[in-house]
Design brief:
Length: about 290
């Protein structure tokens, strides 16, 4: 889905909810003469107020009565006044003139979200000397989450074998940042490259929908870099494009990978390597083999 479609869908859904609430209220007015009379009296008071009369006490009394009647009819406040699905953009799809994080999430249908939290981790699985080291990694990550988006580094890179807990940590970070209300996309490198391949081979207006969320989300987590399909003209080129654009825009990216730095250099080339290991912008962690999940 592209931004235009997602915004339209969000606005239309909002409109439908408001319209349903209006229809429900009209139906209630037909069904309850007591509610009808109360509503009529409230409207009369509104006109009185416009004419300068003091009506506040009376109005409060009528509003109370209306509330009681609605409660007796089994109607909840949110039935008549549907809450916004997104408190950030009030279901307009735009925040500060840009697509809201709810829209970016909608457009990234194949993204997963971090499902783990730091509280779930169990450091006792580590030998004592290792525990100290991993604790430092945790503190850096916790501070990254706390300061986000005003962090010292833009990129975090977790390197380690299967079972080293790198996906777990990345998932904890994704979760924490999403909880803070930022748009977070977490996807496997495999899904990411498939998405970029679709972008590369689509030539209609839906094209941008594949790429834009990857560039615009506040935090992108690319899990298991190195396990994606190596596609000619796609994998290396678009991966660099995404990393480079995000860094230029001062946007944050978290990577996890089984590969060590030399293998990363060989696979993606010097350009991508030097972005990933840019000392001013990135920090890397080598994790060893321990399952962190409780
Ligand atoms: Zn929104």
């Amino acid at each position: 889905m592209d931004y235009k479609k997602a915004i339209l869908q969000t606005v239309n859904e909002r409109r439908a909810r408001v319209e349903n609430a209006r229809i429900l209220y009209l139906d209630l007015l037909r069904r309850s003469s007591e509610l009808y009379e109360t509503e009529k009296a409230i409207r009369a008071l509104i006109i009185d107020k416009a004419n300068g009369k003091e009506v506040d006490a009376q109005m409060a009394e009528l509003e109370r009565k209306k509330k009681d009647i609605l409660a007796s009819l089994g109607v909840k406040d949110e039935d008549l006044d549907p809450p916004y699905k997104c408190s950030k953009c009030h279901d307009t799809g735009l925040a500060d003139g840009k697509p809201c994080s709810c829209i970016i999430k909608m457009c990234a249908g194949d993204a997963m979200l971090g499902e783990f939290s730091f509280e779930q981790s169990d450091l006792s699985v580590f030998p004592t000397e290792e525990r100290e080291r991993i604790n430092k990694v945790y503190q850096t990550c916790a501070s990254f989450c706390e300061k986000f988006p005003f962090t010292n580094k833009l990129n975090l890179l977790f390197m380690g074998k299967c079972g080293s807990g790198k996906t777990f940590i990345a998932s904890c970070i994704a979760n924490k940042i999403a909880q803070k209300g930022y748009s977070v996309l977490m996807m496997s490198a495999f899904a990411l490259i498939n998405r970029l391949h679709k972008y590369h081979t689509t030539f209609d207006e839906s094209k941008l929908g594949y790429l834009e969320p990857l560039l615009d989300c506040d935090l992108l987590v690319i899990d298991d870099l190195g396990t994606e399909t190596m596609m000619k003209n796609v994998t290396v080129e678009y991966l660099f494009h995404v990393i480079n654009e995000r860094m230029t825009d001062k946007k944050h990216t978290v990577f996890t990978t089984n590969l060590d730095d030399e293998k990363l250099r060989l696979r993606y080339g010097e350009r991508t390597y030097s972005r990933l290991f840019d000392k001013r912008a990135s920090v890397g962690f080598a994790l060893s083999n321990c399952d962190l999940r409780k």
